Structure formats: C-alpha cells, structure tokens
Amino acid sequence: MDFETILLIFKQVFNFLVLIFIGYVVRRKNIVGEGAAQTLAKLLTYVFAPLYSVVNLSKNVSIDRVVGYITNIGWGLLFTIIFIVMANLLAKIFAKDSNEKGMFTYMFAFCNLGYFGYPFIQAVFGEQMLVEYMLFGLSSSVILSVYGYYILTKSASTINVENASKKEKRKGLVKRIISPPLIGTLIGITLGLLPINKSSQAFTDIVKIIAPAGNCMSPCAMILTGIVLAKSPLKDLFSSVRAYLISLVRLVGIPIVAGVICILLKLVGVPKIVLLLAMCLSCFPAGMNVVVYPESVGLDSSAGAKPCFVSYILAIITVPIVLSLVLKFIYV
C-alpha cells in the first residue's frame, strides 16, 4: 500500500476525529445539555439516515446493475451472514449485559460501509470498483437496517414492555423491525429499481432537495459520538484496555478469519474481486450506528462509543497493512 493511500486514510480519519472532538467539547463545556445526545440521535435515526439511504440507493441501484452483479450481491450476503455469526460469538466474550452485547455484535458484524468505505474505495481502486463495492455491500446495508437496529435497541424495548401483554410485545417487535432506517432503505431500492429515467429533471430535483439532509448523517453521527464520549474525561478515552481489545478484534481479528476463508475460496476458483471486497468489509472501522441507534431510544451507548472511537485511530495503521497483505496474497 503506497504512501498516498495511507495519507488518504489519515485524512479521512482526521476529519472524523475533528467532528468527534467538537461534540466532546460542546458537551463538556455544557454548550449543549444532557438531552442533546438523544435529540440528535433521533434526528439521525428518523430523518438523516433514512434520507441518506434513499439518495444513495436510488442513485446506485438499478435493474441492470442488480442483474449484472447478482453473483457479487449473493457473495456479499454470504459474507454478511458469516460476519454476523462471528460477531455474535465474539460479543459474548466482551459484553457485560444485553445492551453491550448488541453494540459489540453490531461493531463486529458491520463496518462503516459508506462514509469511510465509499471515498476510500473510489480513491484507491477507482469508480468501477466503487460500483462493485456498493452492490457487494447491498445485503449488509439492508440487514443492518433491520437486524442492526433490532439488536441495538432491543434492551430499551425489553425494559419498556416488561409488563406488557403478548399483543403489545408483538407490536413492539414489529416496530423494532419496521424501523425508519429500513423504510429509507426499501424506498431507496424501490426508486432505484423503478423503470424511470434517472437523468430526468424530476428525479434530479427530488434528489437535490433531500440530499443535503442525507449528507448530515456522517458529521452529525461523529458529533453525537463526541457528545456521548464526553461522559468520561479525555484521558479515559485512551486508557480503556477493553476498548483497544475490541477495536483490534474488529480491525485485525476478523480480517484474519476472513482472510483464511478467502484463501480457501480462492483455491476453488471464487473471483478475486469478490475476495477483495469481502476483505474490505472485514477490515474497515466500526459503523457509527453503534452510537446513533441506542441513543435514539434512550440507551447509554458509551460502552460502544469508546471502542468505535479507538477503531478509527487504529485504522490508520491496520487498514493499509491488511489490504497490502490482501493485494499480495489474495488479490493476485
């Protein structure tokens, strides 16, 4: 991996860390109050994240692409399932309660697919690879909007319906599954698959109207992370042994297992581009929803925020090393 790629990762991570630091400062200085985290998280969950999905998926998913890349989409689904199985096993090692188990499962199963992955893939591998990456990660996008939201908000739902009837519990379960992120994902895919001309003025105007709100997703998620981290003194953010261990599992442990699987699949003739994309999903830092979704329902996400924060710092070192090994031993 060349120096320009390392510099690109550093720039991307630095941008994230600046926004996290802003959130940290405004909360520590009481510029925003205790309720700011939940308010911002609700905006992210109910407005920014769904609109981001609508814009991104409607522009990049089409019938031609789905048909043309159906094999890659299938491989993406298989690897997403593998990562989820691994994540559930690993989360049990680190979690102290069900809330932490949900956050750690999410961290191990789902990377920052879009805001870290998209610019990185495009800059390093080009526009065509970005299309391949988006469609390979389509299954992950859909599953995290259902399963990811469910596991991250399950603890709050259990508390709220402790004495509820079976009917109320079923209603609560449906509400957790049919979530705003899922609705945004389904609308985006539907618009992408509709036989409409995406170059039409009407389509372009609609995207232009909602795109700015969708673009708020990443910076607001970073600021929210900083607000959550402000519960602890700054020195504590860098002294949590558990946070480093969880981050290393996310950035190194999972890629090692994924690499073994990819080497075996390479021996039986699986296309090398599939293996490269799978390794990218395995080695990118944790997705920010590990903070956003729990906070939106009033759960404390600080146990997930710390390793998530650390994972971005360590990614400056681990991502170039992992992908250099992939290009040397797998993508050849």
Question: Could you please describe the fold and organization of this structure?
Answer:
- This protein is an all-alpha fold.
- It has a single domain, classed as Na+/H+ antiporter like fold.
- The protein is built from 17 helices and no strands.
- The model has no long low-confidence stretch (mean pLDDT 90).
What is the residue-mean pLDDT, rounded to a whole number?
Answer: 90
SSE succession:
HHHHHHHHHHHHHHHHH
β-strand amount: under 5%
Structural class: mainly alpha
Number of DSSP helical runs: 17
- Biggest β-sheet, characterized? none
Tell me the span between the first and last alpha carbons. 14 Å
The tally of domains stands at 1
Computed over alpha carbons, the radius of gyration is 19 Å
Helix coverage percent = over 70%
Oligomer: single chain
Number of separate strands? 0
CATH class call? Mainly Alpha
CATH architecture: Up-down Bundle
Pick out the low-confidence regions: none
